[in-house]
Amino acid sequence: MTATTTQDTSGGVPAREISISEFGAQKAQTILANSGKENAGVRVFIKSGGCSGYQYGMAIDDRELEGDLIVVDRGVKLLVDRMSLPLLRGSEVDFVENMMGGGFTVNNPNATSACGCGSSFRTDGSQSPDGEGSGGCSSH
Fold first, then answer.
1. DSSP 8-state symbol, 126
2. Contact at 8 Å (CB) between 70 and 78?
3. Which end of the chain lies in a sparser environment, N or C, as judged by fewer CB atoms within 10 Å?
4. Higher pLDDT pick, 54 / 1
5. Whether residue 65 has pLDDT greater than 90
6. Where are the transmembrane segments (predicted)?
């Protein structure tokens, strides 16, 4: 298995491929502790679709796959597959709460436009993959 692992041991905030906010880490640690999966982490990935072309996905995962980037930030293991990494590089996973509830979100510096619901995005010059993404936010 060839995976790249990065761990924050300096106590500082080094430049990293992907990170998680303090509040996001608190929420993720609670969810991971209740998942029943040993050594689980948060898998962050990109799939085609959504109203802006790409859509974020997240899952609790206890598998480390070949080619995964594995980052441990604020005590949370983040896993990103090699196909998603270029679109997620420099992103921060966060947890937001509002009147409609709460959920995880991705603050992505690579996104040049995003859907109003915040779960899909497009990068500079990219077309919607496979002709998808022409619908509204409710099409996810």
1. P
2. yes
3. N
4. 54
5. yes
6. none
Q: How many CB atoms lie within 10 A of CB 31?
A: 15
- DSSP state for residue 12 in the 8-state scheme: S
Q: Is 109 exposed, middle or buried (0-12, 13-18, 19+ CB in 10 A)?
A: exposed
What residue spans define the domains of the chain? 18-128
Question: What is the pTM for the complete model shown?
Answer: 0.73
Whether the Cβ atoms of residue 62 and residue 68 lie closer than 8 Å to each other: no
Domain spanning 18-128: CATH superfamily = HesB-like domain (2.60.300.12)
Identify the burial level of 72 via C-beta atoms within 10 angstroms of its C-beta, where 0-12 means exposed, 13-18 middle and 19 or more buried: middle
Can you read off the two tokens belonging to residue 6?
């990065």
Q: How many other CB atoms sit within 10 Å of the CB of residue 76?
A: 20
- What percent of the chain is predicted at pLDDT more than 70? 68
Instruction: Please state, in angstroms and rounded to a whole number, the distance separating the CA atoms of residues 17 and 113.
Output: 21
Check pLDDT > 70 for residue 50: no
- CA 83-84-88 angle, to 5 degrees, is 145
CA distance 84 to 45: 6
